[in-house]
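subagent[fold] <- orchestrator: predict structure for attached chain, return tokens only, no commentary.
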Amino acid sequence: MDILISEELDAPSVRRLGDKYKVVSDALLWKDPARLKQAIAGARTVMVRNQTQLTADVLAAAPNLIGIGRVGVGLDNIDMSAANKQGIVVIVPLDANATSVAELAFGFILTLARKIPKADRSTKSGGWDRKNCTGMELNGKIVAICGFGRIGRKVATFARAFGMRAIAYDPFVKQDSPSLAETGATLATTLDEALAVADFISVHSPLTPETKHMFNRDLFARVKPGAFLINTSRGGVVDESALVEALRSGQLGGAALDVREKEPPVIADLERMDNVILAPHVAAFTLEAQTRTYEAVASDIDRLLSGDPAKNFVNRPRPETRG
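subagent[fold] -> orchestrator:
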């Protein structure tokens, strides 16, 4: 087959590929690694979101595979080292959903600052509790942005419009980076430096072995007391048990999470906390972002299958395709 789709992926741009190529779509294939290996063996390209685990073992079973189209920006479900070694181009539309994710992250900041969920629940239940719904202004507050890529830079720009000060932490960004001048952010030399003064912490780090549980018990103990945590990156970056402890103790004033360690999560402590806002991994789920994402991936899959280079590849170094 030309294209294997192993999750629920449907959009006009994907359907148009079916008019030109042989497409096999199985929305439940990601749940069965054995069937996935069998199916991918005959595929030239595969399209996934974040549920399909394309491990080295699975990719080794795909001798004809020339491209992976990731409908989204995370790479933690794809073994990039194996893909590079096998010459498989990994397509990720990095610019497609940055605005949507950044808008949700900043929406969470506003929602936490003004206690909107509490006010909503109280008013709908017949209350008029203005005193306990008193929030804070964002003007003059500090937001620490952990991960200063496309999304983090947009959050910094939004923060400046609200009169906030943005402090960025990213080990890959240098002091002379133009992104700092463009957004008005200052660069912290260590994460502790940023967290010690931040009223809000917005997380935009990829999930890697180095960042897994980066926000843990020890780190929460060093944040500014009463700070708010916002995570729209990957759930595994935050140790949820440590987060619960920090929220219960008051070390954190609240949290807003669009991503979880396990998705969907088991209902537990976080779901029962009034100072926690939870969403089902929807930061990129706007009509505009989804349209751009699907079109970018489908267009690059078409290029690869036609013998042309992809535009939105993330391999480093760029692999030589087999096609």
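orchestrator: received. Logging for downstream: The first strand starts at residue 3 and ends at 5. The mean pLDDT is 96.
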